């Protein structure tokens, strides 16, 4: 089973302006954060590990890949990385667009340092929550992968509320065979009640894993 690597209190900074990077680094490190700064989006993507629990502060306008293009790339990678954009050229429609795509906030230069500290703290909490949810999904996926294809067929029908007799008819097998499959499913998924079984199966039926 895949294990999420936790890098606590890490903040990534991607900005082509060295003075801004240095200023942000000083501010965040003074508040106990671990900071990794990059001069461009491509440089950041070359080293980024999606298993890291961290947050990203990114400039919108940069040579090469822009901050918005970086956000699109992270979305394409299903990277659970909260983002706050900083820019000297922002406008309301752009802010709304980035936030709808998952950015936590949008700050125009010069920004208030206390506001940024507050946002980063909130972003890290979100990052930790997202990482915990992702790990739970991976755990459920690993558990469900223990089932044979026939057991998965039986599980689908249990979740749909079908009775053993109906499942037997659906799959053209005996009721005793359904009962055996049901017992195997409960054992493999390490549950003792149908309610617990439903909780695990819900991940599969909703396409979460």
TrEMBL record:
Keywords: Coiled coil, DNA-binding, Phosphoprotein, Transcription, Transcription regulation, Two-component regulatory system. InterPro entries: CheY-like_superfamily, Sig_transdc_resp-reg_C-effctor, Sig_transdc_resp-reg_receiver, Tscrpt_reg_LuxR_C, WH-like_DNA-bd_sf. SUPFAM superfamilies: C-terminal effector domain of the bipartite response regulators, CheY-like. It holds the Pfam family GerE. Residues 140-205 form the HTH luxR-type domain. It comes from the Bacteria. Residues 10-124 form the Response regulatory domain. One of its GO terms (molecular function) is DNA binding. This is DNA-binding response regulator. It comes from Neopusillimonas maritima.
């Amino acid at each position: 089973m895949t294990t999420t690597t936790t890098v606590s209190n890490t903040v990534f900074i991607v900005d082509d302006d060295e003075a801004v990077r240095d200023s942000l680094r000083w501010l965040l490190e003074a508040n106990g954060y671990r900071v990794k700064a990059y001069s461009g989006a491509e440089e950041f993507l070359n080293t980024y590990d999606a298993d890291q629990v961290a947050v990203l502060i990114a400039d919108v306008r940069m040579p090469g890949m822009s901050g918005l293009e970086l956000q699109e790339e992270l979305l394409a990678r299903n990277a659970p990385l909260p983002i706050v954009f900083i820019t000297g050229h922002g406008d309301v429609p752009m802010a709304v667009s980035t936030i709808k795509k998952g950015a936590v906030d949008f700050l125009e230069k010069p920004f208030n340092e206390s506001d940024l500290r507050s946002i980063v703290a909130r972003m890290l909490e979100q990052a930790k929550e997202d990482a915990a949810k992702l790990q739970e999904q991976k755990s459920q996926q690993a558990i469900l992968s223990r089932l044979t294809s026939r057991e998965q067929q039986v599980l689908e029908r249990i979740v749909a509320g079908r009775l053993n007799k109906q499942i037997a008819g659906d799959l053209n097998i005996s009721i005793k065979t359904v009962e055996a499959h049901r017992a195997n499913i409960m054992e493999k998924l390490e549950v003792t009640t149908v309610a617990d079984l439903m909780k695990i199966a819900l991940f599969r039926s909703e396409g979460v894993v």
